Structures are given as structure tokens and as C-alpha cells.
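Hi R.,

Here's the input for the zinc ion complex you asked about:
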Amino acid sequence: MLNFSRRDFVVSAGLAAALGINTRLVVGPAYAQKTPDPQKPFVTYKVGSAEVTAIYDGIWEKPHDPAFIANASVDDVKAAMVKAGLSADFVSIPFTVAVVRNGGKTILCDSGTGGQVQPTAGKFMANLKAAGIDAAKIDVILISHFHPDHIFGLMEKDTNKPVFGNTEIVVSDVEYKFWNDPAVIDRLPEARKPLARRIQAVFPTWKNIRQVTGESEVAPGIRFVSSPGHTPGHRAFHLSSGNSQLMLSNDTAYVPALVVANPGWHGQYDQDGVMAEASRRALLDRVIADKIMICGYHFPFPGAGTIAKDGTGYALTVMKT
Ligand SMILES: [Zn+2]
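And here is the predicted structure with zinc ion in place:
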């Protein structure tokens, strides 16, 4: 869901300042992270016979910014963070990558930040290794959408060399076509242009990207679920094994304290706020109706839980581990 790569910080510090981004990230020494990393940065749980491992990549303690939620004030955002038991000092945005083992395959769900989004994130590869998972043995990578925090883990910093050059990368055809249209650069807001340029310089040169249409089965027991709005081709992932199911929300419902509790809030990183809200409500209603588990890339680590209706919104109950 993030707008800025580290490179963007360097080239657009003025813009970052204008948007209320903490420019200490550009010029300061090591950023003092207030949230401790989880003691154990990988957690494995079962969904039927499938095994899901949540791997911690890091956190963005996002400074408050009146532009972050279009239809809520900074005070509203602070109150929502406190209600969820989090600090009001910043918006807590952790990054958690899921690895699913099912049907004899090891499936990576998004790729982490690659250490190129925030100085307080980029621990995915080390934590993957700590979890005993060999990056070279990942069979397939599913990508939810092309925002930096979900795809920069695919490409080396500066060189753009592929990190997973021999692994199939499955993406939505809608998402691929949107970002790779040369005309899109003129239409995007300034802060998004470098992202589109990087995608266009890299992805068309890779032979291991497979575009899929609609809600195809993309790996054993996993289907794409169309959930547009955050980006045009955003996909959630639905894992099914026996009688158990898990909905990987990805960024359909990104920070639960904000947009699960208040599904009508339109975030700055939702490209189409109205469409994103409709996708979010549909996904959360489906999870409730089907009584299944949900996890999210920006949920509090390890990120899995259940959803219930709560007044005009929804409430996430995080799984005990
Ligand atoms: Zn995101």
C-alpha cells in the first residue's frame, strides 16, 4: 500500500515533506523504531492439511498525515489506533509475508519490501531462512498487486536483478497491463511515477511472470479472488484444504485498526476509494458468512484471525499463537 521507495525519498524529499512524510528517514541516522520486533519472527499454523508460515519483514511506523484517510481526521485515526490497543503516536503498518505449503508445493504470497521501502523493514529473507525455508526451493510466487511493499522483494536494489529468477511469478493480467501501459505514467500522481517506470523497466524483461485472468486456481488449493480498488487488478488469495479455508486479504483490508473497524474510510493508497470499499466489504462479509480465517499483509503479526460484525464496521480477533 505504500507510495514511496527509499529511492523516492532521496529524489523527492521536498515532496515527502509536503506530504508530511518524516524526512528524518532521508537524512537522519538510523531511525529509532518504537515497536519491538516479534520475539519469534515466523509463526506456522495449519489450514486443513496446508501449512501457513507468517514471516515478519518489518514495520513502518507511519507519521500521521491529514491526507492519509480522506474522510477521517488525524484525531479519528489516533482514536482508532488506541481502540485497537496500539500507539497513537504513529500508524502501525507491519509487513508480513505468508508462505503456504500445500500439495507438495511451497508457495510465496507476495515478496516483502526487499529492504527498499522503509529502513525499518527488509528482514523477510533472513527470517525466511530462520524459519527453515530455503528461498531456492520456493515453487511459485503469487503477487497481490504491484505496490512497492509487495513486489520490491522480487528485485535487487539498484540493479533490479531478479531475486527469484527461476521461480514462476503469478500475477493478475489486469494489474500487469495497468502498470505496464506506457501511457499510465502520465496519468499517475507524481509519487507513483517512479514505481511504474521501475516496473516497466523490469517486468517485461523477465520470462518467469505468468499473467492469469479472473479468479483462476493459481497454486494447489489457492485461487485468486478479484478485489479491485486498492489497485485496478488487486487480488486476495483464497486457500482451501479439506474443510478449512483461509482468506489472504492482502491489501483489501490493510490496517485493521483503521479500515476493518471503519470499512468506509478511504485511504490515500486506495487508488479508487469507492471500489476499494466495495471490495473490502464483500471480502469481509464473505469471511463472516463462510466462517473462515483471514490474514492480512499489514495485520498485527502474525496476522491471522477471524472477523465479526461490530456496529457499523467489523472487528478482527487475532489468532492466539
Ligand atoms: Zn501493502
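One thing worth noting: The longest helix spans residues 273-289.

Cheers,
M.
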